[in-house]
Amino acid sequence: MARCTMYAILYPGWDILANILEYSLKTAARAYKGKRGGGGSERAHASRSRHEGREARECGEARESPDGEKGAPSIAIVIVLKDSTHDDQYALASSTVHCYAAAHAYRLQVVNAAANASWAAVCPQPDFMFHRHCVLRHLLDTIDEEWVLFLDADVGVINPNHLIEEYLPTNHSTHVVFYDRIMNHEVMAGSYLVKNSEFSRRLLKHWADAVFSLPVSFHGTDNGAIHNVLLEFALPDLREGRERCEQLWRQSKDFPSLDDYVVCTRALMASRSMEGIEIRNKTHAQRWSRDGWLTNSVWSRRDFMLHGWQKKRLDVLGFARWHSPLAHAPGAELALDRDATDERVAALCRAAGRNAAAEWAYKDSFMADDEDVKRRLEKEIERQEETYREKVDRMKL
Predict the structure, then answer these.
(1) Structure-derived torsion over alpha carbons of residues 117, 123, 126, 127, reported in degrees to the nearest 10
(2) For 299, phi and psi rounded to 5 degrees?
């Protein structure tokens, strides 16, 4: 039987890994009580037997929440790809997500939208960035899990000792959780948590269909549209203010002018709470992912996932340059065939159980303590907050 609990492996002389071990032990203690027994979660097993390609949950009991509550919500991870032509771009990120999901018994579904012609019929959005949210909306009809973590293909797991349950909202009326990007004022469109609910389906449909009413401007695709969508969907009574922001959106010609529109929408959002929707700010402790290149790929035990692991930007001077904090991908010794590798990585990590963390071959030069990473991020956060205030004053928002 595979074991759910996974701990960091301690390498001699690696002081930071010792801290990760201590942190992971505390996390595991909160998330699991006692040894895994027989029986298991009938709902989890039934769910996987009904859907093709689902990984059987091999842990004896249902996963507990980080505060020790039994019967924690079931969670799936979903990644939607346009096609398979750029798989090599995301190989490192993909291998970490596959290993993590298998070791912790999360269902992982990777959808190649181009491989199934029915997706084009169900989701006719001409821009893939919107099409993917439509795909997820319809996947919710076939997924039994209560929550779904949606990930961009270039999001990788850097610290497999965190559980997704740590990041679920505490407010039971919340259906969708977004987080703010640190590099600008945007709501992150490439990763979010959604409850498997009618509310979530309606929001995802609204977002996907926004492609049909985009302004003829530098609109920012789904990342620009999500701001207007949130205002339309959750704050429809702020129509006058929204129309002012929409005017800025129609006039946007580049990233700076697009940011004026984004700041306009964020100022409106700050004036009201949005029922059913949570947006975690730049300093929120329960942010499951961030842009790794903001700290030059340096990370600490508080980090869970890092965004931006694209091969084309690896060690290349320019925007979003990153360096791999891993010596090699999990399961690197396995077959070179891409599909077979992902499947075999999952099998390897599922069988390894608590020892699967050994597959994360860390480069110690990219490992730092929590305060060091916090200081690096705070500098960018302060810069962005100052820019936000300046724009709010200039536009008299």
Answers:
(1) -110
(2) -140, 165
The Cα–Cα gap between 104 and 110 comes to 17
Closest by alpha carbon to 262, among 181, 155, 372? 181
Residue 373 and residue 379: Cα distance in Å, rounded?
A: 10
Contact 156, 308 (CB under 8 A): no
Counting beta carbons within 10 angstroms of the beta carbon of residue 311, is it exposed (0 to 12), middle (13 to 18) or buried (19 or more)?
middle
Count Cβ atoms below 10 Å from residue 313 Cβ, excluding itself.
17
Q: Taking the model in full, what pTM does it have? A: 0.83
Residue with tokens 């928002």: 397
> CB within 8 A of 172, min separation 6: which ones?
none
The gap between the terminal CA atoms of the chain, to the nearest Å, is: 58
Structure confidence at residue 92 (pLDDT): 93
What tokens does 326 get?
């891993």
- Three-class secondary structure assignment of 291-322: EHHHHCCCECCCCCEEECCCHHHECCCCCCCE
- What ranges in the chain are assigned the alpha helix state H? 15-31, 42-50, 91-103, 118-122, 128-139, 198-209, 221-234, 239-251, 255-270, 338-352, 370-394
Residue 366 pLDDT > 90, yes or no? yes
Considering only CA atoms, give the Rg of the chain: 21
- What is the residue whose two structure tokens read 């609990």? 5
Pairing of strands 107-112, 147-151: unpaired
- β-strands 75-81, 107-112 pairing: parallel
Query: Stretch 115-131: mean pLDDT, rounded?
Result: 95
The residue whose two tokens read 């004026």 is 260
102 CB-side CA count, 13 A:
25
Separation CA 231–CA 241 (nearest Å): 9
CA dihedral 252, 256, 259, 260 (to 10 degrees): -70
Using pLDDT thresholds of 50, 70 and 90, give the confidence band for residue 339. Answer: low
